[in-house]
Design goal:
The protein has about 160 residues and is of the alpha+beta class. The protein is about 50% helix and about 15% strand.
């Protein structure tokens, strides 16, 4: 009789502990994709692009107690503000793609630098021609370039393997 008094409470305790371990978390995005700070770049949630997104995770058994609107909140694309954290929620990070605003800024920086190079090149072309003394130095240079191209072009056709 004594072993039964010990086994049943132990069985009940193990069952409750196992049920607590078998819970499933449901995570929803809770913020915009943002660059990771320097000290977190080596973390898995900052790979591969160095960006992360905040998640709000809730126990899946708690979802049945909440209304439909709370289970499926509206998209964050409509508003820039971060909604308040729900009570009992677990915050976590996940990896996300590229940050659109950063990529757009990088693209326009690339275009601006290329336009700067184009402007310097076009603006310096008359000075290069003046430095070449009106063609006295450019004609031999063009002939050398032309003959070099012809020589390089004809090399593969003149080589014969035995």
């Amino acid at each position: 009789m004594l072993p039964r008094l010990i086994i049943w409470p132990l069985f009940f305790f193990v069952t409750l502990a196992t049920a607590a371990l078998n819970t499933t978390l449901v995570c929803t995005p809770f913020g915009a994709c943002e660059p990771c700070p320097e000290e977190a770049l080596h973390k898995p949630y900052c790979q591969p692009f160095g960006n992360r997104r905040l998640l709000q995770c809730k126990n899946s058994t708690d979802l049945h107690d909440r209304p439909h609107y709370a289970q499926h909140p509206p998209s964050l694309a409509d508003s820039d503000s971060t909604p308040p954290v729900e009570e009992g929620a677990i915050l976590a990070w996940k990896s996300c793609g590229r940050v659109v605003s950063t990529e757009r800024a990088d693209f326009f920086e690339f275009v601006a630098v290329n336009l700067l190079f184009l402007g310097v090149g076009v603006g310096s072309w008359p000075r290069v021609l003046d430095w070449l003394d009106g063609g006295d130095r450019i004609l031999p240079l063009l002939r050398l370039t032309y003959h070099s191209c012809i020589l390089l072009y004809s090399l593969p056709f003149t080589y014969k393997s035995h």
